[in-house]
C-alpha cells in the first residue's frame, strides 16, 4: 500500500505543470516516502526524509519561484539590475 502511494504521488509530481502545485505535490510525495520508510522500519531515514523531503525542499522551491517572479516583475517595470 505504501509503495503504491509513493508511485502514485511520484507520478503526480512529474505530471503537475504549475510550479506552485508541483511544490505542494512534492511535499506530499516526501510525506509518503516518510510513511514508507517507517513501514520498512527505518525510523532514522524517515525522520531525515520528513525534515528535508517534506519540508525544506518544497519550501526552497517556493522561495525560488517567488524570487524569480519578483525579478521578472522588476524587469517588466524597467527596473532591472541597474535600477537597484
TrEMBL record:
<keyword id="KW-1133">Transmembrane helix</keyword>
<dbReference type="InterPro" id="IPR025383">
    <property type="entry name" value="MrpA_C/MbhD"/>
</dbReference>
<dbReference type="Pfam" id="PF13244">
    <property type="entry name" value="MbhD"/>
</dbReference>
<protein>
    <recommendedName>
        <fullName>MrpA C-terminal/MbhD domain-containing protein</fullName>
    </recommendedName>
</protein>
<dbReference type="GO" id="GO:0005886">
    <property type="term" value="C:plasma membrane"/>
</dbReference>
<keyword id="KW-0472">Membrane</keyword>
<keyword id="KW-1003">Cell membrane</keyword>
<feature type="domain" description="MrpA C-terminal/MbhD">
    <location>
        <begin position="4"/>
        <end position="70"/>
    </location>
</feature>
<feature type="transmembrane region" description="Helical">
    <location>
        <begin position="47"/>
        <end position="65"/>
    </location>
</feature>
<keyword id="KW-0812">Transmembrane</keyword>
Amino acid at each position: 500500500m505504501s509503495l503504491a502511494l509513493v508511485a502514485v504521488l511520484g507520478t503526480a509530481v512529474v505530471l503537475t505543470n504549475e510550479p506552485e502545485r508541483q511544490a505542494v505535490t512534492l511535499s506530499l510525495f516526501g510525506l509518503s516516502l516518510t510513511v514508507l520508510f517507517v513501514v520498512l522500519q527505518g525510523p532514522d531515514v524517515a525522520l531525515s526524509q520528513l525534515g528535508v523531503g517534506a519540508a525544506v525542499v518544497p519550501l526552497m522551491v517556493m522561495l525560488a519561484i517567488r524570487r524569480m517572479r519578483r525579478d521578472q516583475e522588476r524587469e517588466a517595470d524597467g527596473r532591472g539590475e541597474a535600477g537597484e
